[in-house]
Structure formats: structure tokens, C-alpha cells
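Review box. Two proteins, two foldings.
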Amino acid sequence: MEQTPATKPAYIPQKIYTSQASFGPAQYTSSIAVRELLHELLTDLAITKYQLGRLLGTTQSAQVYRWLTGTFRPGPLYLMRLLKICHMKMTGHPVARMSYIDWENSAIKWKDGNVTHNYHLFGSGGPLPSTERESRREMAVIPHQPARPDGAHS
């Protein structure tokens, strides 16, 4: 029986997808894995590397190129945004027709010039009105804790 891509066993060896640094417990994605995955995603999403950079909201237009050449690797923010873009594609959003994503306000600017504000992104519904926001002081307040009965810390 011939195996199709869906029935082929996944071959994802750790030494290929993580760096081989011998120091520290953290393992980072390897440059080779990033390059291969990005090339596959660019093909599957039918977008250019520069369009991907705009969709991810990279601060430099050549950032995706640097990931592809192995000069840098994407950090956690861009990896999570990349996952969200892949999820949007899987759920039927025409990613190839997107021009820009405003990640803070859940807005998508389309190539035809239209902008949609349909709460595309998890946890966003646009900025909260200032009357509904908690100040930094309110968020940092530690609730009152009663004194210990044994008198410690008094």
C-alpha cells in the first residue's frame, strides 16, 4: 500500500529541530528547522516572506529573510502569531488576501483596502475603554492577609 502524506509516519527527530548546545536546560529551535518550516508555510499560505513579515508585525521588513538565512530565529511572540495565522488559514480565513494584521486591536487590513474588526484574535476585542481598565496600581494590589495566629512577622 502506498503511503500518502497523511498516512506517512511523522519523522521529527529532536536533534534536527532543536539546537545542540551543551549548556543549560533550554533548547531552542534550530535554524535549519526554522528555515524548512518557514518555506513550507510560505508555500501553504501562498504568501511572500515580506507579506509574512507584515502579517506578523515584525519591526524590520527583512526580519523573515533573516530567519530564512539562519541569522536569527523567531522569538516566542512571532512564533505564537505564526501559529495564529496558521490557525486562521485552517479555519477558512483567506490569509493570502490579508495585507496587515493589527494584533492589538484585532483588525485585519485586506489587500483590497477593506478593514475588518471581527474579533479575529483570541483575547482581543479592541482596546478596553479607559473606564473599564484597571490601573497598574489596582492590578498590583495584594489582598489583605490576616496575621498569623502564632504572632510571626509581627
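Next protein.
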Amino acid sequence: MPNKNNNVLYRDLRFEGAVDQETRTVPISFSSETAVRRFNWAREEYYNEILGHEDGNVDLSRLQDMGVCLFNHDRDKVIGAIIEPVLDTAERKCKAKIRFDSDDFAERIYQKVLSGTLKGISVGYGVSLFEDVRPGAKSTCGRFTGPCKIARSWMPYEVSVVSIPADAAVGVGRSLVDDTELAEFRAYKEAQKQQAEQKRAAEAARMANLKRELDIMEMEGV
């Protein structure tokens, strides 16, 4: 059953290719189908979150129309452009190039990337539709086994050069800022609170009814 979620998420990885100094560009792959292990608080079970990379799964229009490269996800620190974003269905990856600007701040970041001081990049994206695969079941494409959630409609928003990536694994290593997991945990705790309140109210009503019955019995001399 599809689940919808509009939270902004982030995936961290590293530069994969060498910098082309003539064009001031560097190739990246900013997503793959590598699974991220997460916890479903409502079901109290672990599952794998997977970004789908089949035709129709990824909407690259935002990067194609206005793709920017930021520093540490700061929208006031634009250091370049994201160019040539594509979905590689054969490799199950999204790829692009970062083209660095030449203003003073962008030049400082570019030189740090060129020297190897800065190696991390992070991609901000949103998921509008998940395919929810229950434990032991197969996904609709037949390639994944549950429990897992597969992003079947998602959009990358921006790419950042980051000073301290959360996951320093080479290439397609990813980590997730837990906006979604935190929201799920809060919803789970709120549901638990409501269930506890309903249980207390039901118990209070039961005790009140019992007291009334005892009062009636006492008045009738039973």
C-alpha cells in the first residue's frame, strides 16, 4: 500500500570523479538503490528504505531547470550549478556534474575540492510516494523483498558540498537525516498517548458504572 511523505531528506556521499580544471566541473552520482535501514515505530519493526531508479521513479525537472550547488545546504551560499542530471537505469543511479562558479567564496570551496580537503557531497530530496512492501513479500518490480519502502516518486532538490558528511563511504554510500523517522516516532508516541488516555477513560467509565450499580443495590437493600 503506497504511503505519502513530503519531508525533505538528505543523502551523503563523496565525489566519484576527478575535477576537470578547464571546465571547473566534477562528475557525481548522487543517488542509488543502496538500502538504508530504518525503523517503523508504528509497526515496531526494521525495514529498508530504497530510492527507486526505474523509469518514472525520479523527477529531475527541478535540477534540470534550476539546479544549484550549495555549501552545507545553505541557500545563501550558492557555489555553482548542477548540470546534465540524468537517470542511469542500467546502473540504477542518478548522475550529474557540479560546475563551480568563480566568485571569491565559490573559488575558495572549489580550491578545497581540488586539493582534496573537501570530499563530501549531500543531496536534498523529497519523496511523494512510497511502495510499502510487507515482510516476506516481493515488490511490484520483483527485485526487492520486504520489509522495505521503495520511493516510487521522488525529486532531488539540490546538491551541496559539505564539510562533514554523515556517511563517508566512497561512491554511493548514503546516510539519512532522520526527519521522517523522527516524525514517525512522534506520531507513534502520540498514538500511544491517545491509546493510554482512551484506556484510562474507559476504565474510569467502568468504575463509575460499577459504583452506580453498587449504590443502586445498596439503596434497594440488596
